[in-house]
């Protein structure tokens, strides 16, 4: 592993991963290819700009010509593929971008990688293509049970369907062409640099500013929460030690109902910051709003394979991780303002109205 192409490195998990890998491995070159959509921000990695091991390239993973050029120029031997449209609500209101980036973009990346690594005279044995995916491909659970690596795919939103399609393409390139792939399917991440449209940062930001806290449906949907740095460590572990062609489920052993996540954030903010002007506790801002269409009820991951085979497990429980996350958002209010530009306000007002 010497010349690593990270796609989507300016997004939430990608940025945390780029930081981790540059800290952990000295003798590498890292090329971060990112289109800088609303979710990708150069601010996330501004302090790395002077690191001679790091190169940022603004570009689209659907651009086969650019990909081919990068593979040749940089002699890429490792790909870690994060780039995607990632927000379920946006996939419901506008699925086209999800099909384009998540399916066609992954296809373009696979084709370029195949041409570069499996051509005449190439040795693919030491190369690695790691596809970062989600537990949402497995569908929705009832009150019991866990997703394992052999759970049948049953994606139910345009987002998860597009990720499932990309997973199948990646597997097909392994089975058909022998592309050296690895795959991770992870549960809900939270932590620094998450765009404030996802539940945790949205609630932190709104609660801080005395705005309504929208909770979909009855608030009893369950997600399994994992601190983003633990996820990034899992990806690095799989990259270094995972068995070729294998999938690893990654999760936090931390199932929570959404309403409990929201209440916890409110309580931490009440404890750490000035009270609301009304004098009410922040839980008074909670509003139960119309449910997400096709809202998956429960996700829960069985992460025993990655623990047994590679020795990875989460280091932080939700109760600790959420406090670190709230602290980060309190200390980085400038980052929040800088990423919430006009296009985001327009989207938010369409979702929730303009009286917030
Ligand atoms: P994100 O939305 O924060 O970041 C996505 C990044 O990809 C952005 O920097 C964006 O600019 C870039 N991008 C989008 N389209 C692109 C394109 N066509 N070409 C190049 N770059 C493009 O996403 P995230 O939450 O960091 O998720 C990263 C990956 O991890 C995704 O593949 C997602 O499916 C997966 N994942 C996310 C979670 C989670 O909880 N966030 C959990 C499991 C898996
Ligand atoms: O499970 C992994 C997935 O987790 C990733 O693949 C996705 O990229 C990531 O966005 C996340 O998907 P979710 O839909 O679970 O995350 P989100 O933060 O959008 O929502 C978490 C839960 O909170 C979900 O049940 C919907 C609910 N919710 C969300 C928002 C934004 C609310 O109740 N109110 C909100 O305002």
Give a verbal description of the structure.
- Helix content is 42%, strand content 16%.
- With 356 residues, the chain is an alpha/beta fold.
- The chain has a domain at 3-190 and 228-251 and 298-315 and 343-352: Rossmann fold (3-Layer(aba) Sandwich).
- Strand 5, helix 5 (158-177) and strand 6 form a beta-alpha-beta unit.
- Helix 4 packs parallel to helix 5.
- The strands form 3 sheets. Strands 3-2-1-4-5-6-10 form a 7-stranded parallel beta sheet, sandwiched between helices. A 3-stranded mixed beta sheet has the order 7-9-11.
- It is globular, with a radius of gyration of 20 Å.
- It has helices at 12-24, 64-74, 88-93, 96-117, 158-177, 199-208, 228-241, 258-272, 304-310, 318-331, 333-339, 342-352, and strands at 3-7, 29-34, 54-58, 78-81, 128-134, 181-186, 188-190, 213-216, 222-227, 247-250, 255-257, 286-289.
- It binds nicotinamide-adenine-dinucleotide (NAD) and 2'deoxy-thymidine-5'-diphospho-alpha-D-glucose.
- 2'deoxy-thymidine-5'-diphospho-alpha-D-glucose binds at residues 86-88, 134-136, 187-188, 198-199, 202, 214-216, 221, 223, 258, 292, 299.
